[in-house]
Each structure stands twice: as structure tokens, then as C-alpha cells.
Design a protein that fits this description.
364 residues, Rossmann fold, six-stranded parallel beta sheet
Length: 364
């Protein structure tokens, strides 16, 4: 039954935005968006899925959120079941908060929940090959300008664009801190390499990425005065697998797995170069001007191809590429970090305000 508000009481739904943090990269991405929206007197309610250090990062950055749902592994059937279960778990929050719009960077569960309750959905994305829900589409889609118009994900959605890449939204606010080196036991004379393994439980995973990951670690580990920080994607399967195959390198301190959640941008900036089997860490390094090598072997998206074409990202497609293309050298970290412009953030905020104004007009 529709709840009618008294005439003298403002309908706060018109200014309330529900953001769902579905994966770890969404935490730093939404922080400046949340700040800008709150400065414009919009209310923000946050939900977070308990997986891939999402909640740990949210707590690290001081976000107030509601922990709802978890990850159900890489089995396709369990993924579908898990998505539906979490969409049901999100219902009480959505009913209680009654937001004007639902906003995420690809949350399928939020999309289902919002559609059930007829809440307008805004979905941001930066990888055109992510599997959507063919039977349900968001009302609005916001993506980078470098993605061709034909790859707008769904013809039923209104497609809006922003300049640059997703990481341009939050890297301008980054402030380097060298204390992380001491915390991790890395000496200033060491060459520091940060490695993010492939997302083995993702639908787009290609086993070739794992072969490249192992080959990269083995190649780098042979070099003297090099420390390798590996950031596993989960604390059980992937972490245990890494500890098993490189037990000796972990014992000698050649490989380091942080025992707590770390600020990814800060680790990247203090590294001499980065290797990653995913998208976000590669793009964060590119945004910060840190040399980065991608071992991602799924379909290369328009953003990564754009970075590769502009010399900001090196794609490793086969094992021979590691020795031929990888340069294990120190980077001059004394250079002051050059903050990029905030064009991406401003454009996305403008899009969101226009959408909110339009949805408010439709309900009055």
C-alpha cells in the first residue's frame, strides 16, 4: 500500500539516493560522488555486499553502510541464485528508505530489487562485456566516452557519457603516504612490484590469465632486491593457493601478502610498477602514471585498449611477452603526484542531478 505523506512534511524520497557497493573498486569510486551529492543536500544511503574486501574498504574510508549479502562462488547456477537471494535481502532496506533513484556500478541485485519496487535505476559501467540481465534493464546507463556507442549495453536504457576513465573520478583526491612501505617491511632500496591476481570467479575469467600470473611471479622472483606484494581477491581459496605454491618466497619475505586492508592507490603510487589480472588496478596505475602490465586475458574492453594505444598500459598476451616487454627497474617516486582534472566527476554529478530533477518532475 502506498504511504501518503502529510502536506506539511517534505517527501525526502525526492532527494534520497541509494548506492549499492557490489565490488571493492566501487568503494573509492563512490566516495567523491557521495561527498558531492551530500554537499548539494542530497541524502545517501549505502548498502554493501560482503565480498572481495568491500566492507573492509568501506570501513577503512569511514563509510556508514548496511552489510547485506555475500558472494556465492564461480558456479554459474549459484551466481544466479545468489543474485536473487541478495535482491530479496535488499528489499527491506529499499522499502524503508524509499529512495528517489538506485545507483550502482553494475549491481545486478540492486537492479532486480529496484525494478520490483519501481525505483528508477542508474547504472554506471566501464567494461562493455560484462554480462547484464537481459530481461531487466536500468533506466539510465552512464559510461566512458571511449566506449563506442554500439556498446551501450542495453537499447532500452538512456545512455549518457563522461570523459576519461572511471579512475579519473577519484584519483585527483589521492595524497601519497610513504608509511605503507615501513608497514609492509619494504626497504626504500627495494624494487616494489604490486600484483593483483586474476578474478578466477568472474564470468569473464580466462584460465590463460592464471598461467601468466604464475609466470610473472616466477620471473620477477628471480631478480635480486625485488619485493612482491600480492593482493589476493579472497581470503580463502586464492590466498591459500598462493601460500601453498610460494611458501618459501613468503617465508623469506620475497612475497608479501598484507594481513590487513590497504589503500590500493597508495600502494600503487609507492610501487615501481604494477601487474594485474583485472581492470581497476590497471586503470588506477595508468591514472597515477605508474607503469602497469595487464595479464587480463578476457575480452579487452574499449577503456583498456584506449590506455594501451596511448602507451599507458602494456598488455601481456603470452608468456614470452613477460621477458620481452617487462622492465624491472626503480621508478622515481620523488616526482610530485600530478593531480588530473576533475572533469569526469563533474560530468557524472551533472548527469545524476538532471536525472533526479527529471524523476522528481515525473512524480509531482
Amino acid at each position: 500500500m502506498e504511504i501518503k505523506l502529510h502536506n506539511n512534511i517534505p517527501d525526502l524520497r525526492k532527494k534520497k539516493i541509494w548506492i549499492d557497493l557490489d565490488n571493492s573498486p566501487h568503494v573509492p569510486f563512490f566516495i567523491p560522488l557521495i561527498k558531492e551529492l551530500k554537499q548539494r543536500d542530497y541524502l545517501v544511503t549505502l548498502t554493501a555486499r560482503d565480498c572481495f574486501q568491500v566492507c573492509g574498504l568501506a570501513e577503512l574510508f569511514g563509510l556508514q553502510y548496511k552489510r547485506i549479502g555475500r558472494h556465492y562462488g564461480k558456479n554459474k547456477i549459484l551466481k544466479v541464485v545468489g543474485t536473487i537471494i541478495r535482491s530479496i535481502q535488499l528489499l527491506p532496506v529499499a522499502l524503508r528508505e524509499r529512495p528517489a533513484i538506485a545507483l550502482s556500478h553494475g549491481s545486478r541485485s540492486q537492479l532486480i530489487t529496484a525494478k520490483m519496487l519501481r525505483i528508477p535505476v542508474v547504472m554506471i559501467f566501464d567494461y562493455e562485456f560484462t554480462q547484464g540481465l537481459g530481461f531487466i534493464a536500468p533506466d539510465w546507463v552512464i559510461g566512458p566516452e571511449v566506449i563506442p556507442n554500439k556498446e551501450k549495453r542495453c537499447s532500452k536504457s538512456q545512455f549518457l557519457r563522461y570523459p576519461g576513465i572511471k579512475e579519473d573520478v577519484y584519483t585527483p583526491f589521492f595524497k601519497p603516504d610513504t608509511n605503507i612501505l615501513r608497514e609492509l617491511g619494504v626497504g626504500r632500496q627495494d624494487v616494489l612490484v604490486t600484483i593483483r591476481p586474476p578474478a578466477t570467479e568472474a564470468h569473464y575469467h580466462n584460465p590463460e590469465s592464471e598461467k601468466l600470473f604464475v609466470a610473472v611471479v616466477e620471473f620477477i622472483a628471480q631478480k635480486p632486491d625485488v619485493k612482491i606484494v600480492i593482493l589476493p581477491r579472497n581470503e580463502i581459496k586464492q590466498t591459500m593457493w598462493i601460500k601453498k605454491i610460494w611458501a618459501e618466497l613468503l617465508e623469506t619475505g620475497k612475497i608479501i601478502i598484507p594481513d590487513h586492508v590497504v589503500n590500493g592507490l597508495n600502494l600503487i603510487w609507492n610501487s615501481d610498477f604494477v601487474v594485474s589480472g583485472g581492470g581497476t588496478m590497471n586503470r588506477e596505475a595508468a591514472a597515477l602514471g605508474v607503469p602497469v602490465y595487464s595479464i587480463f586475458r578476457g575480452k579487452i574492453g574499449a577503456v583498456d585498449q584506449y590506455l594501451s594505444d596511448n602507451g599507458r598500459l602494456t598488455l601481456l598476451k603470452r608468456v614470452d611477452d613477460i621477458e620481452e616487454k617487462m622492465k624491472i627497474v626503480s621508478r622515481d617516486k620523488s616526482i610530485k603526484f600530478q593531480q588530473s582534472n576533475q572533469g569526469a566527476l563533474e560530468v557524472i554529478i551533472t548527469h545524476l542531478i538532471k536525472i533526479l530533477d527529471k524523476e522528481q518532475a515525473n512524480t509531482t
